[in-house]
Amino acid sequence: MKVTVLSDGAWGTALALVLRRNGHRVTIWGPFPEYLREMEKTRVNTRFLPGVRLDDELLFEADITAATAESEWILLATPTQFLRGVLEKFRPCFRPERQILLNVAKGIEVNSWLRVSEITREVLGESRYVVLSGPSHAEEVSRQVPTAVVAASTDAEAAMLAQKLFMNEVFRVYTSGDPLGVELGGALKNVMAIAAGIIDGMQLGDNPKAAMMTRAIAEMSRLGVALGGEAATFSGLSGIGDLIVTCCSGHSRNRHVGEELGRGKKLDEILQAMGMVVAEGVPTARGACALAHQKQVEVPICEQVLAILQGQQEPAAAIRTLMTRAARAE
Fold first, then answer.
1. Does the annotation mark 189 as catalytic?
2. Three-state SS for 6?
3. Given a cut of 90, is residue 277 above it in pLDDT?
4. pTM
């Protein structure tokens, strides 16, 4: 198959390597032509995935029309907050009759509070659309560490085609008919990872982190169902699976943000130090709370994370607020 990856970031690059190992023709497009030329020459993505050798047959193309012209799959790996602009560039050359969109970004767009599937529908119209998500850090996938993810679509055939496209002996793909739930699981767990990082940064230990993660999956499921997702999805790879890996791994950018907040640093300082590396949970915290308010769903962890991010609450006070909520049954 011919696949174009719309992003030169870590996750898009890691998935490009999976596809190349499976024998597919893969082209990476990125917004910075000079950086694409650097990757093409050095065969290393030093900015986002250092230390990983890129396949010699991996192609790079700065012109989005040329990059996507012959592709049957368009991999949307651009961070959610920048995706709309990329889709606007791609719109004139999109061929919905022969191209399938496969989203791997995890977030909710600021102000519109739209998921990626909703953004693509708004910009590109109706299309065949699949979301791929699960516990899958780019750093490990690029080193062929055994990984399991889920491909979800309302189009069962498209989900199975995505499964076939990616699956190999170290990258296992399940299918799902609940793309809404899978998208929300991937987005909301990033907010919860910030909470986990705050606990780690404060060096509070294992008990509060385990409690937070348990209540986090209940909160994610509650909001997800209210928005139209299936409860069972949040017990799967894109829910509890992704929550575990993002809350516990040193690779997690969202957990890193929380850890620094727990140590007393300010958000602006943390994000500035991260440079071009994106922590999707920061803007998604606003979206999660906005959607919860619309649906009148309680999301106390998301609310406290947002209060900390906005400088309205100190981490210790946020934990106290959560611990002293009214008693209730589990």
1. yes
2. strand
3. no
4. 0.95
